[in-house]
Amino acid sequence: MTPLIEYRDVLKSFGDKVVLDGIDLAVDRGEVITLIGASGSGKSTLLRCTNLLEPIDDGEIVFDGVDISEPGLPPDPIRRRIGMVFQSFNLFPHKTVLENVTLAPRKVLGRSKREAHDQAMAMLSRFGLADKAGDYPDRCSGGQQQRVAIVRALQMEPEVMLLDEITSALDPELVGEVLDVVRELKREGMTMLLATHEMHFAREISDRVCFLDAGRILEQGPPDQLFGAPHEPRTRQFLQRVIDAGRM
Amino acid sequence: MTDLDGAGALTAPAPPRSQRPSGLTRRQRWERRQRRRSVGVAALSTFVVVTLLVVLVPRLDTWQRVRESFFDWGVFRDSFPPIARAFWLDVRIFLVCAPTILVLGLVIALARNVRSPLLYPVRLFATLYTDGVRGVPVILWIYLIGFGMVGLINSRTFFGSYLFWGGVALIVTYSAYVSEVFRAGIESVHESQRAAARSLGLSTWQSNLHVVLPQAVRRVVPPLMNDLVSLQKDVALISLLGPVEALRRANIITSDLFNFTPYVVAAVLFIAVAVPLTRLADHLMAKERRRMSGTAIR
């Protein structure tokens, strides 16, 4: 089976700072891959580059057989097949929950108002957000906002979801409801790439965990192996710091 | 409930503080005292100041002369109708210029942000326009465009009139200022909003139209209203070219009577429009804020 996404020797720098320093990774359809590592190790940048929000400097990102990192390629047709959820939700504050969720299906996929509305309401209900449909994001809790952001991305029926530290901005008691949605997506067989600091969750949900350090994938493997018996001293050091901080 | 530590088994927890009967809270009693005191002090100080003004000012030797030349009731009464009629011209100029300026200002702001190399000349022109227009006094533009174009066209139709070209001069100058306000608004929308829109597959143009601009425009309503209030007064500058609007009419009556009351009449008329305009802006903003942080009607 050919991978859905394949990163080949990806290089990305911001000015003098090299953020991605030769990333090689293949993501199969239906696979859930978690990126862990310290802040600044390149997790978020890798996700943003996948969605073409940042251009890479060299190497290739191949999505469904197409080199999407080709400079000058129109990004919009690719982006609509890739869902992304951000740390800070990024809901549109001037639009209601329902308008947030139906904007792209209507404008990009050309769905009718009725059709977009019905599909959105069905999914909002499924995630317990139906009574929030008419509210503005300001009136929703962080957990609700992030679930709305996930629904907004799912409405485009993406082939892969990129989740960029989606629980980092949430109060601890709200993390669970967002992670439940991710579990639900995994059950449905959604391909996911997630950057996270929730190690318990990474261990539970991932098929494979990648430890990033200074823009490189230093170590990868099944969660039990990577968390239980890491090979690399840097990985052990990172996990020890997480444990010391009481986060695992 | 299960008893976790065994110690609290005999005493039931006290009912919530908020459910126990009580009158005003300590804070409310203090606030009420404070409020009474402030109202009393404000009333007293206002009374003293107004009394001093009413009693003392008329005793000044110059007051009589001031009153005669600026606040002559007879002149006020007689000059009000013609000046008010002339003021209607100011209002009409404003009503035509204001929307034109808003649209043109937005277009120029967008033009300054285009990235396509094909449209580079548009961007260049928009930049030169805002820099050039704002660098020159408004009154100079009125002379330059007003007298200049009317002299050049030399036709007695509306499109060769001082009124038309005066309006054009106002539109030219104000759209440059307004475009900078819009541009500031566009740039104040956080990059993450654009990223969210683009990540959904919306094009640059769709992201601008549906996500960035609505937020940008809402944010700049107060400075825009400020510019519009300013425009509402600068309409009077067209009188320099000749059209008889309120200021011009007041000017004519003043020179006839050697009395400045007609100017006061014009001032009152301008204030009568400017103050409600600013209050309307405040009201709209407050309403918008309530809407964004409240539950919408479905």
Number of strands of chain B: 0
Give a short account of the largest sheet of chain A. Answer: 6 strands, mixed
Q: Given the C-alpha coordinates, what overall shape of chain B results?
A: flat
The gross shape of chain A turns out to be globular
Q: Considering the protein shown, what is the CATH homologous superfamily of the largest domain in chain B?
A: MetI-like
What is Rg of chain B? 29 Å
Which structural class best describes the helix and strand composition of chain A?
alpha/beta
Helical content class of chain B: over 70%
Provide an overview of this structure.
- The complex is a heterodimer of chains A (248) and B (298).
- Chain A has one domain: Rossmann fold.
- Helices cover 37% and strands 24% of the residues of chain A.
- Chain A contains nine helices and ten strands.
- In chain A, the strands form two sheets. In chain A, strands 6-7-8-3-9-10 form a six-stranded mixed β-sheet, sandwiched between helices.
- Chain A starts with a strand and ends with a helix.
- By secondary structure, chain B is an all-alpha fold.
- Chain B folds into two domains: 35 residues; 220 residues, MetI-like (MetI-like fold, Orthogonal Bundle).
- Chain B starts with 25 loop residues before the first helix and ends in a 6-residue tail after the last helix.
- Chains A and B meet through helix 2, strand 6, helix 3 and helix 5 of A and helix 7 and helix 8 of B.
